[in-house]
Model the fold of this input.
Amino acid sequence: MALIVQKFGGTSVANTERIFNVADIVTKTAAAGNQVVVVVSAQGDTTDDFIEKAGEITDRAPAREMDVLLSAGEQISMALLAMAIDKLGFHATSLTGWQAGIQTDLSYGAARIRKIEPRRIRSLLERKRIVIVAGFQGLNSHDSITTLGRGGSDTTAVAIAAALGADLCQIYTDVDGVYTADPRVVPGAKKLDEITYDEMLELATLGAQVLHNRSVEMAKKYNIDLEVISSLTRNPGTKVKEVTSVEKMMISGVACDKDVARIAVMGIPDEPGKAFRLFSLLSAHNINIDIILQSIGRDNTRDISFTVARGQLDETVKLIEENKERLHFTEWSSEAAIAKLSIVGAGMTSTPGVAAKMFEALSDAQVNIRMISTSEIKISVLINEEDAQRAMRAVHDKFFG
Amino acid sequence: MALIVQKFGGTSVANTERIFNVADIVTKTAAAGNQVVVVVSAQGDTTDDFIEKAGEITDRAPAREMDVLLSAGEQISMALLAMAIDKLGFHATSLTGWQAGIQTDLSYGAARIRKIEPRRIRSLLERKRIVIVAGFQGLNSHDSITTLGRGGSDTTAVAIAAALGADLCQIYTDVDGVYTADPRVVPGAKKLDEITYDEMLELATLGAQVLHNRSVEMAKKYNIDLEVISSLTRNPGTKVKEVTSVEKMMISGVACDKDVARIAVMGIPDEPGKAFRLFSLLSAHNINIDIILQSIGRDNTRDISFTVARGQLDETVKLIEENKERLHFTEWSSEAAIAKLSIVGAGMTSTPGVAAKMFEALSDAQVNIRMISTSEIKISVLINEEDAQRAMRAVHDKFFG
Done:
């Protein structure tokens, strides 16, 4: 007998048929002798409908009340799922975030889980119930409802798995698992059987939307065995764990992020603190910087290039323009039509020549590299957006073809 | 400065425009220097939508999970109302049933409020907030969500008014107040300025759907000044209180209930316990008896006539047939096409001739009276259903014309 946490996203519970599909998965797991805790998101478009309703009333809804509204979504789906499980002859009890003991910090809309008090879940499991918990929500120390923001339900599932010491946390979704590249772009992409937390983190950051960063970080911290699996095909998915047991592949995936814009600020005096001044200005305005590259310019000056999310480009440029005097640069340029192509792999630390192999593939495909950035298990290059698909296929072929 | 509880039903918050209408009423009350607690129902058809969703999954939803589902309805409307109030420049905080301290007994679907712990509401009022509370819901001693069943939001409002010692509890609805008769049937019906709890109770029982019995009973018990008022016209409504201050009208209203069927059981031996045997049988099957009339039949036997809700007629007849031997009667008959016409008035206790006046009106209108039943402040007659409208107008004209 194992204790398994199963998380189902909004598309998995979008309608009656899908809800019964989930109930079937859950009850089969229970019938096999396991204790099961289910974490559900709101049904399909419920959250969007709520946001639209709120938008009809105000374009500046108080964050606390927005969370009250949104959290009703999981309350609906968890009750419906409990009914479906009951219909199949099993006993289920649904719990809201606060009933499940999920305590968060005070920030609305993107609260962080502070602690889970799993007494009630445990007591229900001991009484042979299937426990359904509302994902995405918790309660803060003022006894007000909070929501966890993007990836919230995944985070709820992993946090509950950690609090209960679960044997496995399965994240059911509408894809089969984690692929070596986006199968819609790279036809030869292969599903990975296993991947390490670190690799998954890099892939998540790079725009592979299978799992959210926060949940992977938490899984890594508490060493929770994760599995990404399709609720539709139910084929074995991808396991995410500390160390993968199969012979290490050099790289585990190729990812491409098009939500990128590049800015170059040139002619900054080569004096201590100048770069700091630029980035602290941007940080004060909540602009997230990704890749940074500093090169030596002419006449004892430096050029700094960096990337931001494309939606923040205009604001960034405006800030730089407005602070031209303070920042002491001579000119700037920006570019939106670029993409960031990355390869990720825990194996690359012990394998020389991975970068060279990637650059060779890009060169053969006549893709121009604009910037390069590396971490221990990742190599990213900035390329023109129009080259993105071709580059992705070429790099994927080189490593997996 | 007064402390006022205002309750708004589902039609009053059905869409964005209506929500802003409610926000306008609430904020004007607050701007006049009052402390305001608002109790809201779920929006328009939300509850029906939820019931339909559950019905797609199962025709026997677990009662606990049905309450989890339904209670999401008020959570949606209370958040939207809080946003609208915020948009108008006032501060509002919404509370679910459990956050508002509403503790109920253990029955799902029709829970009764056991206690209200109003600490949090008070603390918010002290901090100059408008407090919005989800109607219809509470929390039981197992920390599970319950709903209060029909008339639940009215009951929530009155219970909160009692717990806070509020100066007034206003029940906003889509009618102007309590009328001397249903204005759709009797064109000359007049709105009452005041009515006593007892009169309101009789009228509510008789099918005037303005206020639910439970809320009136509670208002009477705790002596809460109630006001039934329209959220659309905002004209002064009807005040419900212990003693009305205007010169007492003889009767306060005429009501007609068509959800009635009559059954006669004849030839029951005139021995002790025979009638008891009949009614204990029906009671054991949850059949509610309204009017009972016993008359002496032939040969030392008795005939017993009584009324039940029309939907329970078939079951009642079946039970009587099946138990013919045990009950020792000779024959039975039943009739569905009848109606119960009632006049209600605290004044009739001190005014002789009220019944005679009613019977005169019916006689003049050539309406045949089938059965008569009286209480301290009510006279009910059973008539043919086809006579109902004519009878109602005739009686109303006699007293109010």
Notes: The longest strand of chain B covers residues 261-269. The mean pLDDT of chain B is 91. The CA atoms of residues 254 and 343 of chain B lie 5 Å apart.
